[in-house]
Amino acid sequence: MKNLRNYFNLLTICLLLFYCQNAFGQDNFNQDHFNKEGLQLLSEGKFQESIEKFQAAIKTEQKCEFYYNLGLAFYKSGNLPEAEKAFKNALAINAKYWEAWRELARVLHDEKQYIDAKLAFENALKYQSHTKPILTGLGKTSFSTSEKLCDKTIAEIEEPTATTTPARDFPGQGNQQTWAKACGLYDQANILAHEGKLDQAILKYRAAIIIYPYDADFFHNLGLALKKKGAYQSAVDAYKRALELSPSDWDTWYNLGSALFELKQYAQARQAFTTANKYRPTNQGKNNIDSYLAQLKNKGLE
After folding, report:
1. Which pLDDT tens digit goes with each residue over 237-261?
2. Which of 3.40.50.1100, 3.30.2090.10, 1.25.40.10, 3.30.450.20 is the CATH number of 29-156?
3. 213-240 b/e with 16+ CB inside 10 Å = b?
4. Closest CA to 220 of 208, 230, 196
5. In the chain, which residues fall in CATH 1.25.40.10?
6. CA distance 27 to 9
7. If we measure between CA atoms, which residue out of 211, 276, 263, 207 comes closest to residue 234?
8. Closest to 123 (Cα-Cα) out of 210, 214, 199
9. pTM check: above 0.85
């Protein structure tokens, strides 16, 4: 009887594993199927139908490629706001996806958001020059064509400049005039973030970082905006870069810990919170840190 019971238990486990494997495989099949159907419909000019297919693929899994293709479909249909949103969602998943930056730049240019378009084109050029392009979906152009379009548009758009001298101290690396220019974008980003316009704020923070990559505050506030959007891994990357520039900033260590906590990377989160405590946080900051440490203790992490 005991052996029979063990046999049935083993059989149940095998059936569950088989079901889970099939369900996972079916999800992969569905998302690829929806995406391929969407691309076919897009090539046939059936934009609304292709949009529905890409949205179905995204419901199965949020891949940057699916958002990118969705953005193309919205752009082709003339729905610029939704195209902008889709390309930004693709970039929230993969900030180095140069093709998404290129298509976002075109959308922003058509919307007459010229400064943001310029920055997006510059990002497209930056990331394309560092990675071998993997062209997916439609709307593809050769890099030489894209580069000429980028250069032409950048030349037509006024260079952003800082209108006031930054009130903050110069970090010490690089050119101070370049930093002052980047601070103008950083200040704009802070205003946008305060207004809840996180996508636009993230774009401005990234633009400031491209111009001047030595200010820890740029990375820290980029991390805050990404964390508010729920892009926790991207926020972690931003906080880590900030800490390379300013390793004794308790607030950055605290925010790094909170992002890692959301990712359920509890051991690393505990280390970040413990480090934050070493750098003399404010009373409120210490209370927040201790609250997280208490939660981690309840999870068995002393």
Report:
1. 999 999 999 999 999 999 999 999 9
2. 1.25.40.10
3. ebbbbbbbbbbbbbbebebbebbbbbbe
4. 208
5. 29-156, 208-298
6. 27
7. 263
8. 210
9. no
